Inverse folding.
């Protein structure tokens, strides 16, 4: 695990992804691997001709025309992708990251991450890609799939990077949130941050005591609080009033069925908190 | 993953899918009507089939964006069945075709398509185009000069109108212009209404009214097998073409099973069997159709046109539909194959022409493909049989001759193998080194035995070297996929 993945595209999140990647890379003391994926959309037509007539050699001519269009588009996308990666490299070099590799791939981001993320310490990705609309607060189409498939922690970058001093840990006593607390206690990522552990709902002394004990050594100034209410409301409100800079949480603890009807707390929190989010499976 | 694929297949290209589906419906109606007439049933049967197949295959198909409906290739096989036994037997045949295709799909017969060479595919496509063209002839031959004039005018509009605008399908414009002209001038030419019953409602569920016994099965089964084979052949070839156009893979086995379900549904609702259509699928991709939605819209729009515009449909002169089908046949035909006759190896041209000739002679695409496949296999065997060389060296003092065999020995080259030995030479010892040869079958081993025997009869002692390596190719399954160096070892000895 000598690198972290930073997934970039042409969106306005790219700068922030690079800054967050730089922050994490410096803390972890590892290199950055920049990944840009050229996605194709064969399900969308590139050519429309409603004349409905086919003449001599129709299928050969059509194949040539479609292939030429794809070729043009692929060449353009590759050139654009290379420029994007070069600019990102220069940006990271300015931040003092020495080891930067670039990868330009065809295909689907999720497939590539799924195949390769096991060897990476962390994946950094923006909340939204080029296609998503910030105004509607919808998350990017790839984000949830990345979070669900990634075996390693994912740092979801918000729109702009702000210096990270205060860490908010969303805790519910579950297996994945206990793992998260362990990670906060030991990982250099969280070292020296002012740490607030928040549990939404009713107090459970056993859970709270466990968290406090775990964090006592590494984070002396750690605050552990229980706030009544629903996590989806309590945590964003707390983050805003206390000026938190980073949210850490476990991901997708519930069954797919439940999420289909009630929605996922993980997705809601990423959407509602205007903060970078560190998601641990 | 599955939900996102689902969304991509259905909603990835909504606007263009809807529009192209409507364009395609224009080319489905003439084919459904024309081939209902050829098969000897009312246009209603073909139109219901086109609707049922297109709508069902939109959900069950494995090749997204391909167009399936009532087709000429399957209709041509049904002619004698309808003539001798009537519509009800046709409906039962359609049901059985569906079941057979589903089973074929389950058994993954699509894998057999790798034995269909490119020349056979070209021959198939050309034969199909010729059949579509010939099927139009009864509508024009023996008719008044007005009909010829209308067909020519129709073609002129179809090929000329896109130069003005590509926003409106030119076949539609052609049909409308010719219909209005005929009604306005009041010329008496055959119209769709003269061809038989047109649908006036949605198709209704009905079970074929035939006795279900062995006699019925004996009548129906041969037709069902042929239709199933023809349908799957055209479907697989069309699927490959659409794969290439869109640069996306397709699930051929699911497509076979889907065709089966679609035909079964068609049979239940009073339609005949159909399959994928090359010409209409090309039109769909050209018009921007990519998703399942395009196929669904083509089917639904066809039915809306047919049912709600029935009085208008009845007025359409057959000549204008003939023009559309002539366009489809021109667009389907592989015109480059004329030029290629001179450039390609003669064997591949013979395969192509044989396929075309057999199909046109029998009106059965399956027979043509079978002949084409057999011919290409024979030509291939002959070609590989030439890869055989026998060298020899004489040691005069010791009266020993050593033969070294290199190359492929099998049924097609066994004769040549036997003839490369000189049995009249008086020798004490004959050495045959076959370590650089491959013995592929029992004919090859038999030929070697014969050679050894003959030499012995002439009084020579025979040593055969390397037979074990040479006959490693004798087993049916070579099993070279799982070992990386297996091919190397097999071919290098």
């Amino acid at each position: 695990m000598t690198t972290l993945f930073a997934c970039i595209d042409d969106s306005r999140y790219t700068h922030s992804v690079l800054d967050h990647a730089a922050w994490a890379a410096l803390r972890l003391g590892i290199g950055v691997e920049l990944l840009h994926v050229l996605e194709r959309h064969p399900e969308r037509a590139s050519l429309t001709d409603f004349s409905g007539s086919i003449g001599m050699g129709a299928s050969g001519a059509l194949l040539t025309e479609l292939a030429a269009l794809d070729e043009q588009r692929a060449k353009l996308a590759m050139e654009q992708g290379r420029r994007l990666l070069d600019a990102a490299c220069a940006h990271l070099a300015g931040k003092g990251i020495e080891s930067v590799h670039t990868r330009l791939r065809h295909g689907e981001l999720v497939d590539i991450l799924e195949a390769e993320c096991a060897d990476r310490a962390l994946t950094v990705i923006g909340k939204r890609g080029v296609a998503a609309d910030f105004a509607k607060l919808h998350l990017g189409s790839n984000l949830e799939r990345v979070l669900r498939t990634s075996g390693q922690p994912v740092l979801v970058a918000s729109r702009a990077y702000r210096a990270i001093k205060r860490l908010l840990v969303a805790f519910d006593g579950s297996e994945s949130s206990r793992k998260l607390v362990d990670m906060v206690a030991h990982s250099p990522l969280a070292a020296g941050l002012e740490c607030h552990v928040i549990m939404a709902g009713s107090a459970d002394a056993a859970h709270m005591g466990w968290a406090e004990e775990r964090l006592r050594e590494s984070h002396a100034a750690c605050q552990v609080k229980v706030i009544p209410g629903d996590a989806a409301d309590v945590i964003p409100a707390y983050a805003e009033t206390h000026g938190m800079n980073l949210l850490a949480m476990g991901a997708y603890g519930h069954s797919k069925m439940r999420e289909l009807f009630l929605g996922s707390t993980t997705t809601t929190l990423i959407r509602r908190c205007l903060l970078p989010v560190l998601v641990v499976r | 993953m599955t939900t996102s694929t689902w969304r991509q297949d259905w909603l990835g290209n909504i606007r263009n899918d809807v529009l192209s589906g409507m364009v395609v419906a224009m080319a489905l109606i003439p084919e459904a009507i024309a081939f209902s007439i050829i098969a000897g049933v009312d246009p209603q049967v073909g139109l219901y089939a086109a609707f049922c197949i297109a709508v069902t295959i939109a959900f069950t198909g494995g090749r997204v964006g391909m167009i399936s409906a009532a087709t000429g290739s399957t209709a041509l096989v049904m002619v004698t069945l309808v003539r001798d036994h009537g519509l009800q037997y046709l409906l039962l045949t359609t049901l059985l075709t569906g079941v057979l295709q589903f089973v074929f799909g389950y058994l993954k017969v699509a894998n057999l398509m790798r034995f269909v060479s490119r020349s056979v595919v070209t021959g198939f496509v050309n034969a199909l185009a010729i059949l579509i063209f010939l099927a139009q002839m009864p509508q024009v031959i023996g008719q008044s000069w007005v009909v010829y004039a209308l067909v020519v005018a129709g073609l002129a509009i179809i090929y000329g109108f896109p130069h003005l605008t590509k926003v409106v399908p030119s076949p539609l414009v052609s049909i409308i212009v010719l219909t209005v002209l005929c009604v306005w001038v009041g010329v008496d030419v055959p119209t769709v209404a003269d061809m038989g019953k047109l649908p006036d409602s949605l198709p209704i569920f009905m079970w074929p009214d035939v006795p279900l016994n062995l006699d019925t099965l004996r009548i129906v089964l041969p037709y069902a097998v042929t239709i199933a084979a023809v349908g799957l052949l055209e479907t697989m070839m069309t699927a490959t073409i659409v794969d290439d156009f869109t640069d996306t893979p397709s699930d051929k086995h699911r497509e076979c099973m889907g065709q089966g379900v679609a035909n079964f549904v068609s049979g239940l609702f009073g339609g005949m069997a159909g399959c994928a259509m090359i010409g209409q699928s090309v039109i769909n991709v050209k018009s921007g159709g990519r998703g399942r939605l395009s196929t669904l819209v083509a089917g639904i729009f066809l039915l809306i046109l047919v049912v709600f515009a029935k009085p208008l449909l009845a007025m359409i002169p057959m000549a204008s539909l003939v023009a559309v089908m002539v366009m489809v046949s021109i667009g389907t035909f592989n015109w480059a194959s004329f030029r290629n006759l001179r450039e390609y190896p003669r064997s591949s041209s013979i395969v192509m022409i044989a396929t075309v000739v057999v199909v046109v002679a029998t009106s059965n695409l399956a027979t043509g493909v079978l002949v084409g496949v057999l011919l290409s296999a024979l030509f291939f065997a002959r070609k590989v049989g030439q890869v055989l060389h026998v060298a020899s060296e004489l040691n005069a003092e010791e009266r020993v001759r050593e033969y070294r065999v290199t190359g492929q020995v099998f049924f097609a080259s066994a004769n040549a193998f036997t003839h490369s030995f000189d049995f009249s030479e008086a020798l004490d010892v004959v050495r045959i080194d076959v370590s650089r040869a491959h013995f592929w079958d029992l004919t090859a081993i038999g030929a070697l035995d014969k050679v050894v025997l003959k030499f012995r009869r002439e009084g020579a002692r025979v040593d055969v070297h390397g037979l074990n390596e040479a006959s490693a190719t004798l087993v049916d399954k070579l099993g070279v996929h799982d070992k990386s160096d297996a091919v190397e070892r097999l071919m290098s000895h």
Summary: Chain B touches chain A through 51 residues (CB under 8 Å).
